[in-house]
Amino acid sequence: MNKEDLIRKLTSRKFWLAVAAFVTGLLAAFKVDGETVETVSGLIMSAAAVIAYIVSEGLVDAEKKE
């Protein structure tokens, strides 16, 4: 996996939804209470938004320097 592939994955909403779904499934399998499952899923999606923003802004800044 090259740098462009990694950046595309980290900024992909589909990727982060898949991560959230996987973690939610694991938490449900281990019978974690629903409120905790919702909180963890929300945290994953919030982190995804921040990561996508940071990576996107970094790419824009890098393009401006070239």
Explain this structure:
This protein is mainly alpha-helical and 66 residues long. The chain has one domain. The radius of gyration is 15 Å and the shape is elongated.
Question: What order do the helices and strands come in, and which of them pair?
Answer:
Elements lengths: L2 H8 L2 H17 L4 H32 L1
Descriptive terms for the model:
0% strand; 86% helix; 3 helices; 66 residues; elongated; mainly alpha
What's a concise summary of this model?
The protein is mainly α and 66 residues long. The protein has helices at residues 3-10, 13-29, 34-65.
Low-pLDDT windows of residues: none
| Record field, number of beta strands | 0
CA-based gyration radius? 15 Å
Structural class designation: mainly alpha
Strand content: under 5%
- Shape call: elongated
